[in-house]
Amino acid sequence: MAQAQPISEIKLGYLRAYAPQLALSVLDVPPRDEGVAGAKVAIGDNNTTGRFLGQEFKLEVSEVNPNADVVPAFNDMISRGTLYILADLSAAQLLSIADLARDNGVLLFNVGATDDRLREEGCRANIFHTAPTRTMLADGLAQYLIWKQWRRWVLVYGSHEPDKQFANALRRAATRFGGEIVAEKEFPDTGTARRTDTGVVQIQRQMPVFTQGFPDHDVLLVADETEVFGTYVPFRTWMPRPVAGTAGLMPSAWHPASEQWGGTQIQNRFAKASGRRMLSKDMAAWTATRIIGEAATRTHSADPELLAAFIRAEDFSIAAFRGQKLTFRKWNWQLRQPIFLGDGRAVVSTSPQEGFLHQFSELDTLGIDQPETRCVLE
What InterPro entries does the annotation carry (predicted)? Predict the structure, then answer.
Protein backbone atom coordinates (compact mmCIF):
# COMPACT_ATOMS: atom_id res chain seq x y z
CA MET A 1 0.00 0.00 0.00
CA ALA A 2 1.42 3.40 -1.05
CA GLN A 3 2.24 5.74 1.77
CA ALA A 4 0.53 9.13 1.85
CA GLN A 5 2.76 12.01 0.78
CA PRO A 6 3.91 14.01 3.82
CA ILE A 7 2.43 17.47 4.01
CA SER A 8 4.82 20.42 3.98
CA GLU A 9 3.22 23.36 5.78
CA ILE A 10 4.08 26.85 4.55
CA LYS A 11 3.05 29.59 6.96
CA LEU A 12 2.41 33.12 5.78
CA GLY A 13 1.80 36.05 8.07
CA TYR A 14 -0.19 39.19 7.34
CA LEU A 15 1.09 41.93 9.65
CA ARG A 16 -1.05 45.02 9.39
CA ALA A 17 -1.32 48.40 11.04
CA TYR A 18 -5.03 48.89 11.43
CA ALA A 19 -7.47 51.33 12.98
CA PRO A 20 -10.99 52.16 11.79
CA GLN A 21 -10.80 54.95 9.24
CA LEU A 22 -13.29 57.53 8.09
CA ALA A 23 -13.50 59.06 4.65
CA LEU A 24 -15.17 62.12 3.23
CA SER A 25 -17.54 59.81 1.37
CA VAL A 26 -18.99 56.77 3.12
CA LEU A 27 -18.42 54.90 -0.13
CA ASP A 28 -14.65 55.33 0.36
CA VAL A 29 -14.41 53.93 3.89
CA PRO A 30 -11.88 51.05 3.65
CA PRO A 31 -13.38 47.59 4.16
CA ARG A 32 -12.45 45.90 7.44
CA ASP A 33 -10.65 43.12 5.57
CA GLU A 34 -8.94 45.25 2.94
CA GLY A 35 -5.78 43.45 1.83
CA VAL A 36 -6.39 40.44 4.04
CA ALA A 37 -9.23 39.33 1.76
CA GLY A 38 -6.88 39.30 -1.23
CA ALA A 39 -4.33 37.19 0.63
CA LYS A 40 -7.02 34.70 1.66
CA VAL A 41 -8.19 34.22 -1.93
CA ALA A 42 -4.59 33.63 -3.01
CA ILE A 43 -4.09 31.11 -0.20
CA GLY A 44 -6.96 29.14 -1.70
CA ASP A 45 -5.36 29.41 -5.14
CA ASN A 46 -2.03 28.22 -3.75
CA ASN A 47 -3.62 25.24 -2.04
CA THR A 48 -5.42 24.20 -5.23
CA THR A 49 -2.02 23.42 -6.72
CA GLY A 50 -0.20 22.72 -3.48
CA ARG A 51 -2.35 19.78 -2.43
CA PHE A 52 -1.05 17.78 -5.40
CA LEU A 53 2.53 18.46 -4.31
CA GLY A 54 2.09 17.82 -0.61
CA GLN A 55 2.14 21.52 0.26
CA GLU A 56 -0.34 23.33 2.47
CA PHE A 57 -0.39 27.12 2.74
CA LYS A 58 -1.73 28.81 5.86
CA LEU A 59 -2.29 32.46 6.72
CA GLU A 60 -2.06 34.13 10.11
CA VAL A 61 -3.22 37.73 10.55
CA SER A 62 -1.83 40.03 13.24
CA GLU A 63 -2.89 43.64 13.81
CA VAL A 64 -1.20 46.55 15.56
CA ASN A 65 -2.16 50.19 15.93
CA PRO A 66 -0.94 52.49 13.13
CA ASN A 67 1.67 54.15 15.38
CA ALA A 68 2.58 51.11 17.47
CA ASP A 69 5.89 49.27 17.79
CA VAL A 70 5.51 46.26 15.48
CA VAL A 71 8.57 44.35 16.70
CA PRO A 72 6.69 42.32 19.37
CA ALA A 73 4.03 41.25 16.86
CA PHE A 74 6.74 40.36 14.34
CA ASN A 75 8.68 38.31 16.90
CA ASP A 76 5.50 36.52 17.91
CA MET A 77 4.84 35.55 14.31
CA ILE A 78 8.27 34.15 13.62
CA SER A 79 8.30 32.28 16.95
CA ARG A 80 5.52 30.14 15.45
CA GLY A 81 7.51 29.33 12.34
CA THR A 82 6.28 32.05 9.97
CA LEU A 83 8.99 32.84 7.44
CA TYR A 84 6.98 34.83 4.88
CA ILE A 85 5.26 38.02 6.01
CA LEU A 86 3.01 40.33 4.05
CA ALA A 87 3.56 43.77 5.58
CA ASP A 88 0.69 46.25 5.47
CA LEU A 89 2.53 48.84 7.55
CA SER A 90 3.83 52.39 7.46
CA ALA A 91 7.31 52.92 6.03
CA ALA A 92 8.75 53.49 9.51
CA GLN A 93 7.15 50.33 10.89
CA LEU A 94 8.36 48.25 7.97
CA LEU A 95 11.92 49.51 8.30
CA SER A 96 11.85 48.74 12.04
CA ILE A 97 11.56 45.01 11.31
CA ALA A 98 13.54 44.80 8.05
CA ASP A 99 16.90 43.92 9.59
CA LEU A 100 15.30 41.60 12.16
CA ALA A 101 13.64 39.77 9.29
CA ARG A 102 16.94 39.46 7.43
CA ASP A 103 18.70 38.10 10.51
CA ASN A 104 15.96 35.49 10.99
CA GLY A 105 15.73 34.41 7.36
CA VAL A 106 12.29 35.97 6.88
CA LEU A 107 11.10 37.36 3.53
CA LEU A 108 8.97 40.50 3.67
CA PHE A 109 6.44 41.54 1.03
CA ASN A 110 5.33 45.17 1.17
CA VAL A 111 1.68 45.22 0.15
CA GLY A 112 0.66 48.63 1.49
CA ALA A 113 3.30 51.37 1.70
CA THR A 114 3.77 53.51 -1.42
CA ASP A 115 6.71 55.51 -0.01
CA ASP A 116 9.52 55.73 -2.55
CA ARG A 117 12.14 55.78 0.20
CA LEU A 118 11.45 52.10 0.90
CA ARG A 119 12.74 51.36 -2.61
CA GLU A 120 15.43 54.01 -2.59
CA GLU A 121 17.62 55.07 0.34
CA GLY A 122 15.78 52.66 2.68
CA CYS A 123 15.77 49.66 0.33
CA ARG A 124 16.48 46.17 1.63
CA ALA A 125 17.36 42.97 -0.21
CA ASN A 126 14.81 40.95 1.77
CA ILE A 127 11.80 43.19 1.00
CA PHE A 128 9.79 42.61 -2.17
CA HIS A 129 7.31 45.35 -3.07
CA THR A 130 4.02 44.45 -4.74
CA ALA A 131 2.42 47.82 -3.91
CA PRO A 132 3.39 50.53 -6.43
CA THR A 133 5.20 53.71 -5.42
CA ARG A 134 3.80 57.22 -5.40
CA THR A 135 6.06 58.05 -8.35
CA MET A 136 4.65 55.10 -10.32
CA LEU A 137 1.11 56.30 -9.63
CA ALA A 138 1.94 59.91 -10.51
CA ASP A 139 3.78 58.90 -13.69
CA GLY A 140 0.88 56.72 -14.80
CA LEU A 141 -1.50 59.65 -14.42
CA ALA A 142 0.88 62.13 -16.05
CA GLN A 143 1.38 59.95 -19.11
CA TYR A 144 -2.35 59.89 -19.75
CA LEU A 145 -2.70 63.65 -19.34
CA ILE A 146 0.18 64.26 -21.75
CA TRP A 147 -1.26 61.72 -24.21
CA LYS A 148 -4.52 63.70 -24.08
CA GLN A 149 -2.56 66.93 -24.70
CA TRP A 150 -3.71 68.29 -21.33
CA ARG A 151 -0.35 69.79 -20.43
CA ARG A 152 -1.20 72.77 -18.20
CA TRP A 153 -1.90 71.76 -14.62
CA VAL A 154 -2.87 73.43 -11.37
CA LEU A 155 -1.82 71.54 -8.24
CA VAL A 156 -3.79 71.69 -4.99
CA TYR A 157 -2.32 69.72 -2.09
CA GLY A 158 -3.00 69.03 1.58
CA SER A 159 -0.89 70.08 4.53
CA HIS A 160 -0.03 66.59 5.83
CA GLU A 161 3.18 64.75 4.94
CA PRO A 162 1.62 62.05 2.69
CA ASP A 163 -0.14 64.78 0.72
CA LYS A 164 3.14 66.63 0.22
CA GLN A 165 4.90 63.45 -0.87
CA PHE A 166 2.30 62.78 -3.55
CA ALA A 167 2.48 66.43 -4.61
CA ASN A 168 6.25 66.00 -5.02
CA ALA A 169 5.63 62.91 -7.16
CA LEU A 170 3.27 64.92 -9.38
CA ARG A 171 5.84 67.71 -9.73
CA ARG A 172 8.47 65.16 -10.73
CA ALA A 173 6.07 63.63 -13.27
CA ALA A 174 5.41 67.05 -14.80
CA THR A 175 9.14 67.63 -15.28
CA ARG A 176 9.66 64.12 -16.62
CA PHE A 177 6.90 64.05 -19.21
CA GLY A 178 6.48 67.67 -20.27
CA GLY A 179 3.59 68.88 -18.13
CA GLU A 180 3.56 72.40 -16.75
CA ILE A 181 2.30 73.19 -13.27
CA VAL A 182 1.11 76.76 -13.79
CA ALA A 183 0.00 77.32 -10.18
CA GLU A 184 -0.01 75.60 -6.78
CA LYS A 185 -1.97 76.07 -3.59
CA GLU A 186 -1.99 74.34 -0.22
CA PHE A 187 -5.28 73.50 1.47
CA PRO A 188 -4.47 73.63 5.20
CA ASP A 189 -6.12 71.24 7.61
CA THR A 190 -7.52 73.60 10.22
CA GLY A 191 -9.14 70.85 12.22
CA THR A 192 -12.64 71.59 10.99
CA ALA A 193 -15.06 68.81 11.90
CA ARG A 194 -15.26 67.99 8.21
CA ARG A 195 -17.23 64.79 8.66
CA THR A 196 -20.09 66.56 10.40
CA ASP A 197 -22.87 68.18 8.39
CA THR A 198 -21.57 71.63 9.28
CA GLY A 199 -17.99 70.77 8.36
CA VAL A 200 -18.99 69.20 5.05
CA VAL A 201 -21.02 72.22 4.01
CA GLN A 202 -18.22 74.57 5.08
CA ILE A 203 -15.57 72.84 2.95
CA GLN A 204 -17.93 72.45 -0.01
CA ARG A 205 -18.68 76.16 0.05
CA GLN A 206 -14.96 76.94 0.26
CA MET A 207 -14.07 75.14 -2.97
CA PRO A 208 -15.22 77.68 -5.59
CA VAL A 209 -13.50 80.50 -3.72
CA PHE A 210 -10.41 78.39 -2.95
CA THR A 211 -9.97 77.53 -6.64
CA GLN A 212 -10.69 81.05 -7.88
CA GLY A 213 -7.90 83.09 -9.41
CA PHE A 214 -5.88 80.29 -10.99
CA PRO A 215 -4.44 80.95 -14.45
CA ASP A 216 -5.94 79.06 -17.36
CA HIS A 217 -5.24 75.34 -17.12
CA ASP A 218 -6.33 72.00 -18.55
CA VAL A 219 -6.56 69.90 -15.38
CA LEU A 220 -6.68 70.52 -11.63
CA LEU A 221 -4.54 68.00 -9.76
CA VAL A 222 -5.37 67.06 -6.16
CA ALA A 223 -2.93 65.56 -3.65
CA ASP A 224 -5.00 64.73 -0.57
CA GLU A 225 -4.10 61.26 0.66
CA THR A 226 -5.28 62.15 4.17
CA GLU A 227 -8.87 62.84 3.07
CA VAL A 228 -9.31 66.41 4.22
CA PHE A 229 -10.85 68.07 1.16
CA GLY A 230 -10.18 66.19 -2.10
CA THR A 231 -13.54 64.48 -2.53
CA TYR A 232 -15.22 67.90 -2.55
CA VAL A 233 -13.14 69.34 -5.41
CA PRO A 234 -14.79 67.81 -8.54
CA PHE A 235 -17.71 69.87 -9.85
CA ARG A 236 -17.02 72.65 -7.35
CA THR A 237 -14.02 74.36 -9.00
CA TRP A 238 -14.31 77.98 -10.10
CA MET A 239 -13.36 77.09 -13.66
CA PRO A 240 -15.00 74.05 -15.30
CA ARG A 241 -12.02 71.71 -15.53
CA PRO A 242 -11.42 67.98 -15.05
CA VAL A 243 -9.95 66.91 -11.70
CA ALA A 244 -7.33 64.17 -11.26
CA GLY A 245 -5.02 62.77 -8.60
CA THR A 246 -6.52 61.59 -5.33
CA ALA A 247 -9.95 62.71 -6.58
CA GLY A 248 -11.66 62.60 -9.97
CA LEU A 249 -9.45 60.54 -12.30
CA MET A 250 -7.35 58.48 -9.87
CA PRO A 251 -4.30 56.27 -10.50
CA SER A 252 -4.24 52.90 -8.73
CA ALA A 253 -2.64 49.47 -8.79
CA TRP A 254 -6.01 47.84 -9.51
CA HIS A 255 -9.58 48.90 -10.17
CA PRO A 256 -12.70 47.16 -8.87
CA ALA A 257 -14.32 47.51 -12.30
CA SER A 258 -11.43 45.92 -14.23
CA GLU A 259 -12.61 43.01 -16.38
CA GLN A 260 -9.89 42.92 -19.05
CA TRP A 261 -7.16 40.28 -19.28
CA GLY A 262 -9.14 37.71 -17.32
CA GLY A 263 -10.04 40.27 -14.67
CA THR A 264 -13.61 39.03 -14.57
CA GLN A 265 -12.32 35.67 -13.33
CA ILE A 266 -10.46 37.05 -10.31
CA GLN A 267 -13.18 39.62 -9.59
CA ASN A 268 -15.86 36.91 -9.47
CA ARG A 269 -13.79 34.61 -7.27
CA PHE A 270 -12.94 37.46 -4.97
CA ALA A 271 -16.55 38.68 -4.73
CA LYS A 272 -17.76 35.15 -3.97
CA ALA A 273 -15.21 34.83 -1.16
CA SER A 274 -15.49 38.30 0.38
CA GLY A 275 -18.82 39.74 -0.70
CA ARG A 276 -17.31 42.86 -2.30
CA ARG A 277 -15.19 44.02 -5.23
CA MET A 278 -11.41 43.78 -5.24
CA LEU A 279 -9.36 46.88 -4.32
CA SER A 280 -5.72 47.78 -4.94
CA LYS A 281 -4.44 46.51 -1.60
CA ASP A 282 -6.32 43.24 -2.09
CA MET A 283 -4.55 42.79 -5.41
CA ALA A 284 -1.14 43.65 -3.91
CA ALA A 285 -1.69 41.03 -1.19
CA TRP A 286 -3.06 38.49 -3.66
CA THR A 287 -0.03 38.99 -5.91
CA ALA A 288 2.46 38.64 -3.04
CA THR A 289 0.80 35.45 -1.82
CA ARG A 290 0.72 34.00 -5.32
CA ILE A 291 4.42 34.84 -5.79
CA ILE A 292 5.22 32.82 -2.67
CA GLY A 293 2.96 30.01 -3.86
CA GLU A 294 4.46 29.95 -7.34
CA ALA A 295 7.99 29.84 -5.94
CA ALA A 296 7.12 27.07 -3.48
CA THR A 297 5.42 24.85 -6.05
CA ARG A 298 8.12 25.38 -8.68
CA THR A 299 10.96 24.60 -6.28
CA HIS A 300 9.02 21.88 -4.38
CA SER A 301 10.34 23.53 -1.24
CA ALA A 302 9.38 25.64 1.77
CA ASP A 303 12.92 26.93 2.29
CA PRO A 304 12.99 30.77 2.17
CA GLU A 305 16.48 30.79 0.68
CA LEU A 306 15.40 28.59 -2.24
CA LEU A 307 12.20 30.55 -2.75
CA ALA A 308 14.05 33.88 -2.65
CA ALA A 309 16.56 32.62 -5.21
CA PHE A 310 13.71 31.53 -7.48
CA ILE A 311 11.96 34.90 -7.20
CA ARG A 312 15.19 36.77 -7.89
CA ALA A 313 16.00 34.69 -10.98
CA GLU A 314 16.20 36.47 -14.33
CA ASP A 315 13.28 34.53 -15.81
CA PHE A 316 10.85 34.92 -12.89
CA SER A 317 7.44 36.42 -13.65
CA ILE A 318 3.93 36.25 -12.26
CA ALA A 319 0.60 36.37 -14.09
CA ALA A 320 -1.74 38.83 -12.34
CA PHE A 321 -4.66 39.75 -14.64
CA ARG A 322 -2.99 42.94 -15.84
CA GLY A 323 -2.32 42.28 -19.49
CA GLN A 324 1.23 40.98 -19.21
CA LYS A 325 3.43 38.97 -16.92
CA LEU A 326 4.90 41.05 -14.12
CA THR A 327 8.55 41.01 -13.08
CA PHE A 328 10.68 42.54 -10.34
CA ARG A 329 13.17 45.35 -10.80
CA LYS A 330 16.45 43.81 -9.79
CA TRP A 331 17.85 47.04 -8.39
CA ASN A 332 15.23 47.50 -5.65
CA TRP A 333 12.78 44.54 -5.84
CA GLN A 334 9.82 46.67 -6.87
CA LEU A 335 7.24 44.79 -8.92
CA ARG A 336 6.77 46.28 -12.37
CA GLN A 337 3.08 46.76 -13.04
CA PRO A 338 0.69 48.86 -15.11
CA ILE A 339 -1.23 51.66 -13.42
CA PHE A 340 -5.01 51.82 -13.75
CA LEU A 341 -6.70 55.19 -14.24
CA GLY A 342 -10.34 55.42 -13.30
CA ASP A 343 -13.10 57.10 -11.40
CA GLY A 344 -15.40 55.44 -8.91
CA ARG A 345 -17.21 53.43 -11.56
CA ALA A 346 -15.02 52.59 -14.56
CA VAL A 347 -11.49 52.13 -15.84
CA VAL A 348 -10.65 55.02 -18.15
CA SER A 349 -7.21 53.83 -19.26
CA THR A 350 -4.08 52.00 -18.13
CA SER A 351 -0.50 53.26 -18.24
CA PRO A 352 2.13 53.10 -19.63
CA GLN A 353 0.48 54.92 -22.50
CA GLU A 354 1.25 54.26 -26.14
CA GLY A 355 4.35 56.12 -27.28
CA PHE A 356 6.19 56.17 -23.95
CA LEU A 357 9.11 53.92 -24.83
CA HIS A 358 11.91 52.35 -22.81
CA GLN A 359 14.97 50.38 -23.86
CA PHE A 360 14.19 47.51 -21.47
CA SER A 361 10.56 47.58 -20.37
CA GLU A 362 7.86 50.16 -20.99
CA LEU A 363 6.75 49.52 -17.40
CA ASP A 364 10.01 51.16 -16.34
CA THR A 365 8.66 54.48 -17.62
CA LEU A 366 6.61 54.40 -14.40
CA GLY A 367 8.49 55.40 -11.28
CA ILE A 368 12.19 55.79 -10.56
CA ASP A 369 14.29 54.02 -13.20
CA GLN A 370 17.58 52.25 -12.60
CA PRO A 371 19.85 55.15 -13.71
CA GLU A 372 18.06 57.39 -11.17
CA THR A 373 17.95 55.01 -8.21
CA ARG A 374 19.64 55.67 -4.89
CA CYS A 375 19.11 52.08 -3.75
CA VAL A 376 22.16 50.07 -2.69
CA LEU A 377 21.01 46.55 -1.80
CA GLU A 378 22.84 44.82 1.02
Answer: ABC_transptr_sub-bd_PQQ, BCAA_transport, Leu-bd, Peripla_BP_I
